[in-house]
Structure prediction request, 116 residues.
Amino acid sequence: MSEQYISLAEVNKLLEEENLRRGEMGIEYNAIQKSAMEHAQKVTVLSKEKADELMAELRELKFGDYVIPDYLICKIADILPKYKNDVRAIFYKERGVNVEENKIDDAIIEIVSKYI
Prediction:
């Protein structure tokens, strides 16, 4: 079994599909599952398809030898940062990359702005 990072938009879609499948069998989500689905519905801005497009564009970005890791790409797709400080906060714990100097924040904001 492999692991991969997914966006909240994909989580939302998976939970909705599972809810429909269970509904057809007469099974309801328990309280925690309902809460997770409600949260995903409230915070998800993009459809899964649009989130996938955004993430694909972000994966194409390269800054010298630095490529944005998948976990940060998902975080960007979930948060949809509008300001440079938002991007810097997402990259705060990334070592060895200067977001401001490499203009990573500008590139990300430009791409994200097409989706919001």
User: Anything to note?
Assistant: The first strand starts at residue 62 and ends at 63. The two ends are 34 Å apart (CA to CA).
